[in-house]
Design brief:
By secondary structure, the chain is an alpha/beta fold. It has 9 helices and 32 strands.
């Protein structure tokens, strides 16, 4: 197997330490369909028969296995030797994501249990390690057929069909180790305030003791901006730092997709005068709000042009083959004239969000949903969603939180008061965790309380769309996709209107087979159909943004602007021209195979 740079690139770029050990690569692996491992003591000293490349799930080709059958209980084992420099340190074993439940043993000692297939967790393995030799064993349990599981597009049948794709079981994001002092910086929350030119910092210290101090040093493009040093009075401390260099009128350093300005910040934890921990991070000064019925970015009305992105990758299922693939998706999205992406039914790898921060792309942060309502679903959903918001709070690219899509998990919204209350609860829960971003109760239809009135509409006839979106009232009164936009009893109160799913035009390139919401015969027909659905939305005085379906083909869905291997179906500049409100003529653009280098 060839190494990918996921085996060398730091997995958590917003909270980075210099000293770390990547544990991706070859692990021992075993299916355990009869649950023999728990009774048989597989958690220590047991050799597994197969090999797998972490962080790829066994269903993926890049894992080295590529089998699609149900195996809901799997085991992993890896042995390694600690660097000498780690002696006497606390050892933190990090998992980016394991789907769905995970038990972790270090040298035979249970050190962690985690539930939730899309969020990170950490095991402190210090007390389990006495020398330099380490054995890590992971038992992962999935629930392939359980439709109350937050699972996103992962199908509960073995073969993909309709809008559902290949499942992911077990480890699917990076595993790594860090050595830290007895006291260390556990996490930070950074909240920008562009109105006051300040950054608010909440710092959380593990192993707190009297005498700890935190130094925060801020720079912009290598130039010193500000620095603060303050004592930590407890495990959590808050400070606000003024950014005296800040101004507007196009000369300032606000973060936007067009000018993705980022401040670098270094955190140094001191015990007296001794440096005991250092973390590199960054933040962007930006604000998302609704002002007088308008969606605003940094206090100015801003028209969102998003593309729906399923986050599936050739060979890797939910895991990109390399960091370059994640960056390339951001570059291709921007090259086509989109200023944002809606990551659909997936909590994406932090490396993707890093590239969105750095290159400038808005993101709607979405949860992977279940399909059936129950008390078990509610417990699973609310717990994991809190971890999602905590993980991604600091990313300036994220401007909207979207916990529920199209009534998935709450299919009886119109008649079931419990399900209505659940969407309200998710809205208010999210607001309680993050008051700085816009939040939806339910994207696409059957809203209860949302900051944006979002509508999903796969109508392909231009004249119907022009009539439907003539006014905000005609839009929210429509029954697009045969669904009420608002649940009866929950009125529309003038929220900004955005069409957050539309298009879905299938166009087959090469030997691809599949489906879309409407079908194009050739490149000219594909472009005409795109114009027929995009221009009525752009020309509407009532609509303030859109999200086109979708970025790439995915398995049996061939309604992407790109093929699954990221080849444009039309020249990138043609799609950019459409997003700029023009009516391009295909013959006037160069052949798509001569795609020019994309630089930002």
């Amino acid at each position: 197997m060839t190494e990918t740079n996921l085996e060398s690139v730091y997995p958590r770029p917003q909270f980075a330490r210099r000293d770390w050990l990547n544990l991706n690569g070859t692990w021992e692996f075993q299916y355990d369909d009869m649950d023999e491992g728990t009774r048989g003591g597989w958690h220590t000293g047991h050799t597994f028969e197969r090999r797998i490349r972490v962080p790829y799930c066994y269903q993926s080709e890049l894992s080295g296995i590529g089998e699609k059958e149900f195996h809901d209980l799997v085991w992993y084992r890896k042995t390694f030797e600690l660097p000498e420099a780690y002696a006497g340190k606390r050892l933190l074993l990090h998992f980016g994501a394991v789907d769905y439940e995970a038990w972790v043993w270090a040298n035979g000692h249970l050190v962690a249990y985690h539930e939730g297939g899309h969020t990170p967790f950490t095991a402190d393995i210090t007390n389990a390690v006495t020398g330099r030799d380490v054995e890590i064993v992971v038992k992962a349990k999935d629930y392939s057929k359980d439709v109350t599981l937050p699972r996103g597009k992962q199908y509960w049948k073995e073969q993909s069909e309709m809008v559902f794709y290949t499942r992911t079981t077990g480890i699917w994001q990076t595993v790594w180790l860090e050595a830290v002092s007895e006291s260390y910086l556990e996490r930070v929350m950074m909240t920008p305030d562009i109105d006051r030119n300040e950054i608010n910092i909440r710092a959380f210290a593990a192993g707190w003791k009297p005498g700890l101090k935190l130094q925060a040093s801020i720079a912009f493009e290598g130039e010193f901006v500000s620095e603060d040093l303050f004592a930590l009075g407890g495990e959590e401390e808050t400070r606000t730092i003024k950014l005296h260099d800040f101004n507007d009128h196009g000369l300032g350093r606000w973060w936007t997709p067009e000018k993705p300005n980022l401040y670098d910040i270094t955190f140094r934890l001191l015990d007296g005068d001794t440096l005991i921990d250092e973390v590199q991070s960054y933040f962007g000064m930006r604000k998302i709000s609704v002002e007088d019925g308008k969606v605003c970015l940094n206090n100015r009305p801003y028209y969102m042009k998003l593309v729906l992105d399923q986050g599936y990758f050739p060979g890797g299922v939910l895991t990109a083959g390399s960091d370059e693939e994640l960056r390339r998706d951001v570059e291709l999205t921007k090259a086509m004239g989109f200023n944002g992406a809606r990551k659909h039914q997936k909590v994406e790898d932090p490396r993707y969000l890093y590239w969105c921060d750095k290159l400038g792309l808005l993101v709607w942060g979405e949860m992977a949903n279940a399909y059936q309502f129950s008390e078990t679903y509610v417990r699973r959903m609310t717990r994991e969603w809190q971890e999602v918001v905590t993980r991604d709070y600091n990313h300036p690219c994220i401007v909207v939180w979207l916990p529920i899509n199209e009534s998935w998990g709450v299919p009886n919204m119109l008649i079931d008061k419990r399900q209505q209350e659940h969407t309200l609860a998710m809205y208010h829960l999210t607001k309680s965790l993050d008051s700085t971003r816009l939040v939806l109760s339910n994207d696409g239809w059957e809203h209860t309380k949302s900051d944006i009135a979002t509508i999903h509409d796969y109508e392909w006839r231009r004249e119907v769309l022009e009539s439907r979106y003539e006014t905000a009232q005609s839009a929210v009164s429509s029954i697009a996709q045969n669904r009420w936009i608002y649940v009866p009893g929950y009125p529309y109160n003038g929220e900004p209107v955005q069409v957050s799913e539309f298009g879905g035009i299938s166009f087959r390139k090469g030997g691809a087979a599949g489906w879309g919401y409407s079908a194009a015969a050739d490149e000219e027909d594909f472009l005409r159909r795109i114009l027929d659905v995009v221009q009525p939305i752009q020309n509407s005085k009532a609509v303030q943004g859109y999200c086109y379906t979708q970025l790439t083909d995915v398995e049996q869905e061939i309604n992407g602007l790109l093929t699954f291997d990221r080849k444009p179906k039309l020249p990138l500049d043609v799609i950019r021209a459409v997003n700029e409100g023009k009516s391009p003529v295909l013959a006037e653009f160069s052949d798509m195979e001569n795609e020019k280098a994309i630089k930002f």
